[in-house]
Design a protein that fits this description.
With about 290 residues, the chain is of the alpha/beta class. It has one domain: TIM Barrel, CATH 3.20.20. It contains 11 helices and 8 strands. The protein binds flavin-adenine dinucleotide.
Length: about 290
């Protein structure tokens, strides 16, 4: 089923994001993870895509296919276009189609250091979205940034660029993670005011690993609220306590978002089913209400 139909049917969708095992990792490890995530009955699961495209999407395609064809759960395959040609993108889209995958999250990807000035066939994600929509019948999502994208000239220019994604056919949007819901509420007010009316699902990452979160802060410019910093300072050397606190923090964030009418919750579960299970236990009743 196309994901836009799921958004039409449900008040709030629940989805999980997973990533393929790294370069030398055995793809089979992810299948145990999927077994455990599938029983939580998400509305769909997304699979990330390597920006450099070294494996030409092989693992993303394989995993998305298992989600869709073995577990009968809708799959959202990420696809990046940085450095790709339209011929390569067409080939990958054909492979997705051959596996019955109907939904693509169309991204630019991070530009490799030193290649900033190289000419690219697809300059931005909006170009990829236009290309996919023109030639194919996929439901297409795009990324959006309640705290503006790190390269953007300004908050306003980032939102104007987002409008291009939607004007070029994006059916829904998925946010970058954030830890302060106020960024999201301000962002929603602004995007709705310029007629960006597609569903926006919210990316939530439970903070259970200090190093990982610090990496995200550096890479994405995510703000850490004071309340959040206190948790890290107090429990950084106590993984069990940090996990409990991180899950409680994310649960509170999600409850606030759902009661404010968010279209969907997209959990960055970091291939850790235990985290997904605990969060779903905390919010399951609220999601059904
Ligand atoms: P774009 O929408 O192209 O935007 C990039 C920058 O260019 C922004 O600053 C924007 O304001 C600016 N811009 C856009 N259009 C124009 C224009 N016409 N003129 C001038 N400036 C413009 N990365 C991966 O490698 N693999 C993944 O699987 C992956 N999944 C992700 C999932 C989500 C939900 C999110 C939020 C991010 C994901 N990323 C992934 C990271 C993403 O690739 C990076 O954030 C990347 O730097 C930007 O991608 P984008 O699609 O948002 O780019």
């Amino acid at each position: 089923m196309k994901i836009n139909k799921i958004f039409e049917k449900k008040n709030t969708t629940l989805s999980f994001e997973i990533f393929p095992p790294k370069r030398d990792g055995d793809i089979k490890t992810i299948y145990n993870t999927l077994d455990e995530l599938a029983v939580l009955k998400p509305d769909y699961m997304s699979v990330t895509y390597g920006a450099a495209g070294s494996e030409k999407g092989d693992k993303t395609i394989k995993i998305a296919s298992v989600i869709k064809n073995k577990y009968q759960i809708e799959a959202l395959a990420h696809l990046t276009c940085v450095g790709a040609t339209s011929k390569e993108i067409s080939e990958i889209l054909n492979r997705f189609r051959n596996e019955n995958i109907e939904n693509i999250l169309a991204l630019r990807g991070d530009i490799p250091i030193g290649k900033e000035n190289e000419k690219r066939e697809f300059g931005y994600a909006s170009d990829l979205i236009k290309y996919i929509k023109k030639n194919n019948d996929f439901t297409v999502g795009g990324a959006c940034y309640p705290e503006p994208h790190i390269e953007s000239k300004s908050r306003i220019s980032d939102i104007i660029n987002l409008k291009k994604k939607v004007d070029n056919g994006a059916d829904f949007l998925v946010t970058q993670l954030f830890f302060d819901n106020n960024y999201y509420y301000d962002f929603m007010k602004d995007i709705r005011s310029i007629d960006i009316n597609v569903p926006v699902t919210v990316g939530i990452m439970p903070a259970i690993n200090k190093r990982q979160i610090e990496r995200m802060v550096t890479m994405c410019g995510t703000t850490l609220p004071v309340k959040f910093k206190k948790i890290f300072d107090k429990y950084e050397d106590n993984p069990e306590a940090l996990k409990d606190a991180g899950i409680a923090y994310a649960s509170e964030q999600i409850i606030d978002l759902i009661s404010s009418g968010v279209d969907g919750i997209h959990l960055y579960v970091m291939n850790k089913p235990e985290i997904a299970k605990r969060l779903v236990k905390n919010i399951g009743g609220i999601l059904k209400a």
